[in-house]
């Protein structure tokens, strides 16, 4: 849509305008005027630029009405310049050579033109005449444009579907917009009141990005949405004065997308009921600003069966109500990044039975992660400096032999990653015990998808990864009988950071390639991961590659060595170290038992 608007509104034609020879009074003949004329403009509107250019060559006395011709044909001033050019130039010439006249107006051929006012009224009258055929109007900002002259024009546009208004003070004239509107965009505009929405029962999309402070009137709230039952998209991004959203939004059963990006004065979100059965996305943040005063999730009063993406990043949320979490059964992406006041996640996070991506990067005060659903596939926990590893790690380092080399633990970020990974593996084992598929392989553009990913702030490869190497690759010898029925998969890890030469956050891809080395080497391509807006800091990337994923590419696993290679899409991202480890069911069982012992001891102390 933006490209189309730009093409239409910024389109121009180069003109070379000559003064008619009969009106030249000086020698030498004045040079032609070179002007870039808007395609959607009108020739009389160029007179303020043309007249000063030829003023010294004109005969004395006041000139008549200015007019133009092309190859001797008088040009109709009330037709847009672009249309005239397209009609008269079978083979487009650049520049288009026109002749200007300041005398002898051909009133027997052309309708009189009294300047800019005539052009304006001609435009409005043309809209009236063609009103029933008009389906789309886009009005860019123009100085001194009077929108109040449009009411009677709107009344006749019975087929108007799309209306884009950019940068106008819009009075009550918009109340006369036809009920046929499906898309209404009020970019950079201000309204004294937005009650017109209540009459637009066919409206599908309403956008008011970066609207003026007056858009919501004195109450600084949105209008009643009960009159727009078909609304599919609602965008109020950048409305900095919006304080309240009308509760009727909870009745919009067809609403799919709600955009409240940068509504910095908004303090609460409205209740949302199961009636909003189509809602898929709620977004409060872009790469610059968020809703920094929001302190809680919306109050969900019923199962949100379609809500799959919830972006609550950069808000003032302190805690998440378990009563709201239980209704988000369809949620696949939950973004809580940079919620600096958030200390805990609710204990019923595992009720999010569809959750695949959890983003908590920048939650500086977040201390513990509860049990997460087994569907989780990606966790971004960068800059969560307060996160604590499981107390079982301490026990494991002293009780488990010969696994003590896994856990001489002193790096907290690696401990957090370990805890998260093993809780995920525990969920897989629980599924296996009830005869459900322990892993699910996905496809993405021909490459296999890793089962689980964690990004966390840090530099050193966690010490529980027994095989480590400097650089972006590592090769290991596999023990005999390594691929037994208890083998769950590989844990592979990389320590990566953006180059210090990168002057701003970058978006760089990183992927791992696990190669089976045997009689017939085969490649297993693990998923490509984008770090998002990655700053020039150190991060650890931990992946779990399941046995099912491995077998689907390599076959029966007959190999004696593997090689893991980490690759990046840009030299600005450097992999410093990497590691790999084989994971078995007994390791997860040991972790669970020790974790349970720690919990019992803690309860006894209480």
TrEMBL record:
One of its GO terms (biological process) is piecemeal microautophagy of the nucleus. Keywords: Leucine-rich repeat, Repeat. It comes from the Eukaryota. Residues 458-588 form the C-JID domain. The keyword Repeat applies. GO terms for molecular function: Atg8-family ligase activity. Residues 8-102 form the Autophagy protein ATG5 UblA domain. InterPro entries: Atg5, Atg5_HR, ATG5_UblA, Atg5_UblA_dom_sf, C-JID, LRR_dom_sf. Pfam families: ATG5_UblA (PF20638), C-JID (PF20160). One of its GO terms (cellular component) is phagophore. The keyword Repeat applies. This is Autophagy protein 5.
